[in-house]
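Hi R.,

Here's the chain you asked about this morning:
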Amino acid sequence: MASTKSTQTGKTAAQPKVLKADQLDKLPDVAALEQLALKTTISPENPELRRAQLLVYDAWGARDARSRNALAKRALKLSPFCADAWTILADALGLTPDEKGSYLTRAVAAGALSLGPGGFEEFAGHFWGFHETRPYMRARERLSHHLWTCGLRKDAIAELEDMLLLNPGDNQGLRYTLLSWLLHQGDDTRVDALLAKHNDDQGAFLSWTRVLMALRAGEESKALSLMKSEAMSANSHIGTELTRPKPSIKPSRGYYTLGGKDEAETYVKLYGFAWIQTPGSLEWLKELPKRT
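And the predicted structure, written out as tokens:
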């Protein structure tokens, strides 16, 4: 039975219901999903899948975890290929990392199967541009973060790199996470390749990291001067934020203002460690006002 606690009015309020681990055994695993897909006609236009997705939208708007989980379970009863429903259940309380990973692995499999036999060939290169692909892409992004948290860093990076092949336009902003992860791994070659691949992105995250990589390469040239100008144009607060004695990192609101101090704080959170690890880079930043 769920525990209760007293409120200021003297009434009791039920705690969010913990999802029991044994419920995983009552739901189809990846192999079962694959077998089911062979026996039925599954596509994004499947009526049960569409109704299940509508329940997911209701779940996203639910006020509490109990309601979200209940709606997600109802969605899976309608269609086990509803990837977003699996992802909702992965957020339930009381799950071990392995259990959470099982939900997310099934979410990815369900999302892939929901596209139908020819889905990947049809949507390749334009994933996310089609609404049908988004549950799969959401699930796979969540799985990549789970893998990273569990220490499976190479697997996490491989997930993001493969997703970027499916959707080079990168509507999800995966390149920014991937850039941070590659820096954590100390893989400067792949960092440089990622920056070059997105050389049309002159936003703060990539612009300031181009400056960092130029400093690592020992460049002090016109090219570095141009990079510095582009970085300052993208966000002039990042240099100051990186050199604070104690960076003023604030809780993420899920969004930030382009060119604003909150974007600078987000940059430090994602990439600040790489500047600290680069000899002379912070000293260079402290001299930056004299160069501008």
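The longest strand covers residues 4-6.

Let me know if you need anything else.
M.
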